[in-house]
């Protein structure tokens, strides 16, 4: 029976001698397994397979484990990344946006934050209404999901348009749709905004665009342009503050895909923070032509969802999918919020959605 190369099967024995039962970390020293490891005895026990190895070790593999091992890796992203079929949207989402309630999200039930995360996983964003209009309540809400990510701007932020940090976010000018922190090798996973107050002025409406929807439109209308934005690396930087110039260790394309499933998993788009385009100068026009088409689609009215945020309504969105911007404003706006790492929020979503046992079943097979 040739389920898999013997070395792989022996290396993935799930017994407590080979895998720590609490941490699920490997205890077996892989490279002490003989290169010519062989099966001495084999028994089909119905719901499991028992194997005695030539090195004397005995293993037992459940049928579930073997089924997962033999499955096409493209089937595994559902648990590995908590992948769901995205609900694509445009301006009409204004009529029925995904909303959760603060009191429910902050409940003592460990899964109380799941409706918020489910909204974000499916739609790319969620409002949390009836949140007390205070930094403390907002920070507690974000911490219910995962650790707040600290950057050169600090951790949890609470700011006005005073240019305290040298970034256009700290001004009152209009901002085109963009994703944040493209200058990090690992951009922020979630971003949150809570408008605490807006006095002596007007404007400042928030803009959201579903990057996955617009990317699909571009792929349908101009596959070549899509391919260029999915393959040509672009560099970025954050250099506005003294003593800081943050740049990722390499350039990344605007569209990034899961190598197993081929699904689009990330949009990185921030024209303000863009640096080098990784093409010879005599070839770079093709990137500009493709990016121009992408930019035009982002600005189509039917793709732009505008909403005026208000105190008590927190907006949390997937920074790998949803682009955000704002209109210019006058007066004084106070906004708080923060970033959360992608791995942290996906971990919380997976555990709440599938359960710890189901997630751990996939560790050796995905």
Automatic annotation (TrEMBL):
Domain Gamma-butyrobetaine hydroxylase-like N-terminal: 5-66
GO cellular component annotations of the record: mitochondrion
A GO term, aspect molecular function: trimethyllysine dioxygenase activity
Cofactor: Fe(2+); L-ascorbate
Pathway stated in the Swiss-Prot or TrEMBL entry: Amine and polyamine biosynthesis; carnitine biosynthesis
Leading EC class: oxidoreductase
Catalytic activity: N(6),N(6),N(6)-trimethyl-L-lysine + 2-oxoglutarate + O2 = (3S)-3-hydroxy-N(6),N(6),N(6)-trimethyl-L-lysine + succinate + CO2
TauD/TfdA-like domain: residues covered: 121-338
Protein's UniProt keywords contain Transport: no
SUPFAM superfamilies: Clavaminate synthase-like
E.C. number: 1.14.11.8
N-terminal signal peptide: none
Pfam families: GBBH-like_N, TauD
Annotated CDD domains: CAS_like (cd00250)
Keywords recorded for this protein, A-Z: Carnitine biosynthesis, Dioxygenase, Iron, Metal-binding, Oxidoreductase
PANTHER family listed in its UniProt record: GAMMA-BUTYROBETAINE HYDROXYLASE-RELATED, TRIMETHYLLYSINE DIOXYGENASE, MITOCHONDRIAL
Protein role: Converts trimethyllysine (TML) into hydroxytrimethyllysine (HTML).
Family affiliation: Belongs to the gamma-BBH/TMLD family.
Entry protein name: Trimethyllysine dioxygenase
């Amino acid at each position: 029976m040739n389920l898999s190369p013997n070395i792989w099967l022996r290396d993935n024995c799930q017994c407590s001698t080979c895998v720590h039962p609490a941490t699920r970390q490997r205890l077996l020293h892989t490279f002490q397994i003989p290169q010519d490891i062989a099966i001495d005895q084999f028994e089909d026990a119905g719901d499991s397979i028992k194997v005695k190895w030539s090195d004397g070790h005995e293993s037992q593999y459940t049928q579930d484990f073997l089924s997962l091992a033999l499955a096409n890796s493209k089937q595994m992203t559902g648990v590995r990344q908590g992948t769901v079929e995205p609900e694509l949207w445009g301006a009409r989402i204004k009529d029925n946006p995904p909303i959760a309630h603060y009191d429910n999200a902050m409940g003592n039930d460990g899964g109380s934050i799941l409706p918020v995360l489910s909204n974000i996983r499916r739609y790319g964003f969620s409002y949390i209404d009836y949140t007390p209009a205070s930094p403390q309540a907002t920070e507690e809400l974000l911490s219910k999901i995962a650790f707040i990510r600290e950057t050169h701007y600090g951790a949890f932020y609470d700011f006005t348009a005073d240019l305290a940090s040298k970034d256009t976010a700290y001004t009152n000018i209009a901002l085109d749709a963009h994703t944040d922190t493209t200058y990090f090798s690992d951009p922020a996973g979630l971003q949150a905004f809570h408008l605490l107050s807006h006095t002596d002025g007007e404007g400042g409406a928030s803009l959201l665009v579903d990057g996955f929807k617009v990317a699909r439109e571009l792929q349908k209308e101009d596959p070549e342009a899509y391919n260029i934005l999915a393959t040509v690396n672009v560099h970025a930087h954050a250099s506005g503050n003294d003593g800081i110039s943050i740049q990722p260790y390499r350039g990344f394309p605007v569209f990034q895909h899961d190598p197993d499933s081929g699904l689009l998993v990330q949009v990185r788009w921030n024209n303000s923070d863009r640096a080098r385009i990784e093409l010879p100068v005599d070839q770079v026009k093709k990137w500009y032509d493709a990016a121009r088409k992408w930019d035009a689609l982002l600005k189509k009215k039917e793709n732009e969802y505008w909403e005026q945020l208000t105190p008590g309504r927190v907006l949390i969105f997937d920074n790998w999918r949803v682009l955000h911007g704002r209109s210019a404003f006058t007066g004084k706006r106070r906004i708080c919020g923060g970033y959360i790492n992608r791995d942290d929020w996906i971990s919380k979503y997976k555990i709440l959605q599938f359960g710890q046992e189901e997630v751990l079943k996939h560790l050796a097979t995905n």
